[in-house]
Amino acid sequence: MAHFALVGPPDARRPRLGRPVAGSRTSAAAGGVVLLLPDGEPVSGRGASLRAHAAMLPLGRTLVRAGRSEGLVAHVVRYRVRGWNGADANLAEDASWAVAEAVRRYGDVPVCLVGHGLGARAALRAAGHGAVGAVLGLAPWLPEDDVAAEPEAVRQLVGRRVLLVHGTNDARTDPELSFRFAQRAKKANRDTCRFEVHSDGHALRQYADEVQALAADFVLGALFARPVARPVTDAMAAPPPLGLRMPLAAGFGGAPRRL
């Protein structure tokens, strides 16, 4: 197992929240916080990826626009390193730090963790903090079943609203593994559902408008008790496997339909 000493300039080797995503309210008016956790790599001691950070900004801006009336603030978390790195679980550690920092900065406001790829795994791991009310995992990177290792934990999700979204053609992270995880999570926490994006890949670009609309619907419903779309309600209520293989329809949330 590779281990990496976090050496280098101090500012480069500390996790950071960075600036609020454009359009976020000031701290005095914050009503809720979204922490966006970028994708990473299974093993790496390199610094955080600027490309992965930038990839989270469009979703962050969408969420901030949709939640402006409630005072939503969003940050893209900057990791110390881009690698998960086995038992070190560096990305999960940085996600947990980010939740604590958001509470320190904004006070007693609800927090939603939104992660992509390995960032989704970090979001799921860090969900046990008392401030976290919801988790959205996009194309989550989850480990293969290994009889020699403990399965990925789900008890920390109890009491949270959890949504996983996965493209059926994802060649980087196996959609079947997120389905199996969702099955276990649903047994521990009824407020768990999973949507499948037919023929889309890891970046979820083909149906980006629908994915962003689904994310906004879920996040604002979870943080501010807004009514959610019927497909989300149905997915939460449906028994497995129906609520864990809910298709994301073209045009969801008013997104342009593709011919």
Q: How would you characterize this protein structure?
A:
The chain is of the alpha/beta class. It is built from seven helices and seven strands; from the N terminus they run βααβαβαββαβααβ. A seven-stranded parallel sheet has the order 2-1-3-4-5-6-7, with helices on both faces. α4 (118-125) links the parallel β3 and β4 (132-138). α3 crosses α4 (118-125). The chain is globular, with a radius of gyration of 17 Å. The N and C termini lie far apart (48 Å). The model is unreliable at 7-11 (pLDDT under 50).
Feature tags:
alpha/beta; seven-stranded parallel β-sheet; 7 helices; 7 strands; 31% helix; 15% strand; globular
Mean pLDDT: 92
Strand content: 15-25%
Order of helices and strands: EHHEHEHEEHEHHE
Number of strands: 7
Strand count, sense and barrel status of the largest sheet are: 7 strands, parallel
Major beta sheet, strand line-up = 2-1-3-4-5-6-7
- The proportion of residues forming helix, as a percent range, comes to 25-40%
Radius of gyration: 17 Å
Give the CA-CA distance, first to last residue. Answer: 48 Å
Number of helices: 7
Q: Please tell me what the overall shape is.
A: globular
Uncertain runs: 7-11
Class by SSE composition = alpha/beta
Oligomer: single chain
Topology:
Blueprint: E1 32-37, H1 50-55, H2 57-66, E2 72-76, H3 90-106, E3 111-116, H4 118-125, E4 132-138, E5 161-167, H5 175-188, E6 192-197, H6 208-224, H7 230-237, E7 246-247
Parallel strand pairs: 1-2, 1-3, 3-4, 4-5, 5-6, 6-7
Produce a short descriptive summary:
The chain is an alpha/beta fold and 259 residues long.
